[in-house]
Specification:
This protein is of the alpha+beta class and 364 residues long. It has two domains: 9-233, P-loop containing nucleotide triphosphate hydrolases (Rossmann fold, 3-Layer(aba) Sandwich), CATH 3.40.50.300; 244-357, Nucleic acid-binding proteins (OB fold (Dihydrolipoamide Acetyltransferase, E2P)), CATH 2.40.50. The chain has eight helices and 21 strands. It has helices at residues 49-57, 99-109, 114-127, 143-155, 173-190, 201-207, 225-230, 235-240, and strands spanning 9-20, 23-34, 38-42, 64-69, 72-73, 84-87, 161-165, 193-198, 210-215, 218-223, 247-254, 257-260, 263-266, 282-287, 292-294, 301-306, 309-312, 316-323, 326-333, 343-348, 354-357. The strands form five sheets. The chain has a six-stranded mixed β-sheet, sandwiched between helices. The longest helix has 18 residues, at 173-190. The model has no long low-confidence stretch (mean pLDDT 90). Its main location: membrane. It is a peripheral membrane protein.
Length: 364
Amino acid sequence: MTNSSRPAPSVVVRDLQIRYGGHTAIEDLDLEIRRGEFLVLLGPSGCGKSTLLNAIAGLLDVSGGEISISGKDVTFAEPKDRGIGMVFQSYALYPRMSVAENLSFGLRMNGVPKGEIARRVEKASRMLQLDPLLQRKPAELSGGQRQRVAIGRALVREVDVFLFDEPLSNLDAKLRAELRVEIKRLHQSLGNTMIYVTHDQIEALTLADRIAVMKGGVIQQLAPPIEVYQRPVNRFVAAFIGSPAMSFFDGRLDGDVFVLGQVRIPLSGYAFADGSRDPGAPVTLGVRPEHVSVAGAASGYAFDGRVAVVEPMGADTLLWTELGGQPMSVRVDGERVFEVGQTLRFTFDPARLSVFDAATGERV
């Protein structure tokens, strides 16, 4: 029986295959994107995220499989017939046209009545705060303003699904932060399905309802941001998500204890994925910087460490120390003062650790 409380899928990809000559970019990929969901495709360059987005958009031919949007098979449909709006990394605005003309150009080419064009342009302009800019040319706009126009050009189509291909990557850090907020507000206001490609984990964590972390054309993990962050399914996801990155330690299991040289770390609070313990199995322990604290906590494993590097980061400070001869980062309050060479006692809660099989990289 279908759960009526769950939104119907807006975009469905089944057994998708994409090949270029002898190279396979995507093989047998399945993905369901819920209606009204903000899904982020995240991964390093070459992982297949833009290839997947372009396949959904109809910008490249698929070698096999099926793509449907709003219940309609669009596997071989033209982009204009898929009911999508797309925002690219490049603004691609017409330099001789005003903002208003750029917003309305596609509608005018499709013969939309003038009154309807005016209504849609006014609505998009209001939502994106473009009203004061409507008569300006692209050369008179900042990068952030140009990208808002590019987003507005997609919005005026009033479609069910919006596709974003790294739309903020050409902006500086301040503008990226501002546009992230605007895109999030836009999604909350519209409620449309949005698929967003990025290699920036901060964008993924702040924008997504769910994140699809990709590697080599394969979705490694598909889950809400908090689950991807706290319970990564493998070492690749764990290493890719998080800034500063998770620290890793190669050792072995001895029952409920992780052994790293002469260091023995109890894992009694750790939830093993399969409930098993393979004595002597080589594993990798993962610890996020904010899950380590300077001693004073009442519970958890504690160890002494010498501060090798101090990195002030404003609200936080990153301390670098060692555990069992392997480097580890610790995130602490930025108001506290620490010195290089200082010996501190650190502690962490085993329940917040991650343990991965050393051979497969999978969470255990």
